[in-house]
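lol forgot to send this yesterday, sorry. C-alpha cells for the thing we talked abt
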C-alpha cells in the first residue's frame, strides 16, 4: 500500500455488541459508560460519504466477522459490504477463521488466523484515471508465519527480556490442595463450570468483587481449559482463568436494570446471574432488590 500510486484511505471499526436483544443500558440505547454507541452500518456510511472524492483506494479494517451475531442485522461485514460496495478491500477479524481470499459484493475480503499465525498479502493493481487512480485488479494470498525462520539477530537482542518474562511467568504464587477448581464430568464435551456452581467461578468472582468492591460479580470463562489443578500455582497459570487484560467495570444499578441482565431475586441470600446461555454464576446477596452493584 505504501509504495502504490494513488490516494489511500484506511479506517477501522469495532462491531457494536451492546445493547443486545433490545435491552439498552441508556435511555435511548446509544450511550454505554458515557460513550456514544453508533451502529456499524450508519457509521461506515457516514465516513464514506464524508471522504467521497478524496481517495482512490478504500480499505476497511473491521473487528467484525463475516456473519451477523446475536441476531443483529449489520453486525457482520457481509451486511456492511452489501450496503457499502465502495470498499476495495476489507480486512475482517473476530472469527479468527482463515480466509485467504473471497469476494462479497465485488469487494476483496481477507481474514487471518489468531495470534499472528498467518499474514494476508494483498496485491492491488491501479491505473491512472484522469487526475486520479482506479483499482483494476485485486488479489490476496495467505502466508503462514511458521514457514519463516526466526531472525537470530532479533532473538539475541530480545534474549534478556525473554528470560526475565519467562522467570516472572513461572513464579510460584500459591498452592492448590484438595482437588481441581472445576471437577471432571466424564464427558469431554461437557465442562462442569458451564453447567454447575464450581470453586473456579467462585474464585474469579470473589477476586473481581474484592477489587471492585461489589456485591454481585459476573464473568464469562475464556474456554474449556480454564481450570487449576492440585499442586503449585504459577503466575502464568492465571492466564487460563483470566486470559485477556480486560477492564473491570463497577456499575451502580437499580433492581430493574439487574433484572434486564437476568438477575433473579427468588432467594434473599443469593443472586443468580445468567449473562448468556452457557455461563451461570452465583454470589451472596448483600443488597436489596432496589439497588446493587454489578462487576462485569
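and heres what i got for the seq, position by position
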Amino acid at each position: 500500500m505504501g509504495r502504490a500510486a494513488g490516494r489511500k484511505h484506511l479506517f477501522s471499526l469495532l462491531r457494536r455488541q451492546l445493547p443486545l436483544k433490545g435491552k439498552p443500558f441508556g435511555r435511548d440505547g446509544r450511550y454505554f459508560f458515557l460513550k456514544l454507541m453508533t451502529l456499524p452500518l450508519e457509521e461506515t456510511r457516514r465516513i464514506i460519504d464524508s471522504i467521497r472524492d478524496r481517495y482512490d483506494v478504500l480499505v476497511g479494517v473491521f473487528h467484525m466477522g463475516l456473519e451477523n451475531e446475536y441476531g443483529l442485522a449489520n453486525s457482520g461485514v457481509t451486511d456492511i459490504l452489501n450496503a457499502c460496495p465502495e470498499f476495495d478491500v476489507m480486512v475482517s477479524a473476530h472469527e479468527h477463521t482463515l480466509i485467504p481470499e473471497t469476494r462479497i459484493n465485488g469487494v476483496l475480503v481477507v481474514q487471518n488466523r489468531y495470534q499472528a499465525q498467518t499474514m494476508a498479502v494483498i496485491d492491488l493493481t491501479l491505473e491512472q484515471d484522469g487526475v486520479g487512480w482506479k483499482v483494476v485488479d485485486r488479489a490476496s494470498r495467505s502466508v503462514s508465519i511458521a514457514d519463516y525462520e526466526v531472525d537470530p539477530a532479533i532473538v539475541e537482542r530480545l534474549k534478556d527480556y525473554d528470560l526475565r518474562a519467562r522467570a516472572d511467568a513461572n513464579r510460584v504464587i500459591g498452592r492448590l490442595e484438595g482437588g481441581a477448581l472445576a471437577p471432571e464430568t466424564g464427558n469431554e464435551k461437557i465442562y462442569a463450570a458451564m453447567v454447575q456452581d464450581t470453586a473456579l467461578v467462585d474464585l474469579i468472582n470473589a477476586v473481581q468483587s474484592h477489587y471492585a468492591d461489589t456485591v454481585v460479580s459476573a464473568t464469562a470463562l475464556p474456554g474449556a481449559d480454564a481450570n487449576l489443578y492440585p499442586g503449585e500455582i504459577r503466575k502464568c497459570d492465571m492466564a487460563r482463568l483470566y486470559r485477556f487484560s480486560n477492564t473491570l467495570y463497577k456499575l451502580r444499578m437499580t433492581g430493574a436494570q439487574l433484572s434486564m441482565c437476568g438477575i433473579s431475586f427468588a432467594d434473599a441470600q443469593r443472586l443468580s446471574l445468567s449473562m448468556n446461555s452457557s455461563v451461570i454464576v452465583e454470589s451472596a446477596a448483600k443488597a436489596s432488590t432496589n439497588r446493587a452493584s454489578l462487576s462485569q
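The first strand starts at residue 8 and ends at 14. anyway ping me if u want another try
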